[in-house]
Amino acid sequence: MFGYAMVSPFDVLGIDVDADDDEIRRAYRERVKEVHPDQGGSLEEFQLVRRAYGTLQRGDRNGDGSADPATVDLRDDDDGVHTTRVEFLDYEVVDDYGWSLSDPELFEKAAAADLADTDYGRLLVEPTETLLEAAEGRGFTWPFSCRGGACANCAVYLAEGELSQPANTILPDELAERGFRLSCNGYPATDRLQIVFNLKGLPELDDLMLPPGPFRRAHSD
Ligand code: FES
Question: Which residue has the higher pLDDT, 8 or 180?
Fold first, then answer.
């Protein structure tokens, strides 16, 4: 299917072989924006970038555990990188309990709190699904409005992992830096994610939200 099977994860991310962890992470975040399926990138390319990052993150800089030149085997799809395990939590619960998004124990607290299945739980996301699509496909009703990156109704907070985001979304860089992403066009870009959804009570996002439901221009009356 591919004209080449083994490539260097460093080449995929466009970095030197001696790049440190920060450089790898920065390069990855730029690359997943460029190859994001909503930006015209193919899912294969997106997965390749994701796979390259996963390889380097695991500290397996040679891709196959050997000391040979660094490579990523595109044919090997048995290592779980294609399906992502998501642990989710409703922000309303965070608010009700007086918890904080930045609390490193947030998900441990949620796990111990005997919450409803719709408030806290796990789901799997296939590589062809955005996070919102996966949640809906598993029967959950998460907020959204435009489904096109133009509001923040579908925003989630990333406590762990990476959710890819096309470059031209409404979220300011500052919020993206702090871990906010959009679920309607975000594809999981790591094997595991911990996310808080339903952020409508969060003041930082208030101005960016639209009325729920089909997208309508503000001030159209
Ligand atoms: S629903 Fe509007 S950006 Fe996702």
Answer: 180
Q: What is the mean pLDDT of residues 60-83?
A: 54
Structure tokens at 109: 């607290």
- Cα separation of 7 and 9, whole Å? 6
In DSSP notation, 91-120 reads HHHHHHHT--TT-TTHHHHHHHS---TTTE
Tallying the residues shown for the chain, one arrives at 221
CA of 187 to the centre of ligand 1 (A): 14
Tell me, in angstroms, the distance from the centre of ligand 1 to residue 5's CA: 36
Q: Write the pLDDT tens digit of every residue in 117-152.
A: 999 999 999 988 999 999 999 999 999 999 888 899
Tell me the pLDDT tens digit for each residue of 159-195.
999 998 887 788 888 999 999 999 999 999 888 999 9
- The DSSP output letter for 138 is T
Work out the number of other CB atoms within 10 angstroms of the CB of residue 130: 22
Ordered by where they begin, the domains of the chain are 6-73 (1.10.287.110), 84-206 (3.10.20.30)
Distance 66 CA to ligand 1 centre (A): 43
74-109 burial: b if 16+ Cβ within 10 Å, else e: beeeeeebbebbbbbbbbebbeeeebebeeeebbeb
What is the pairing mode between strands 6-7 and 180-182?
A: unpaired
Which atom of ligand 1 is least distant from the CA of 182?
A: 4
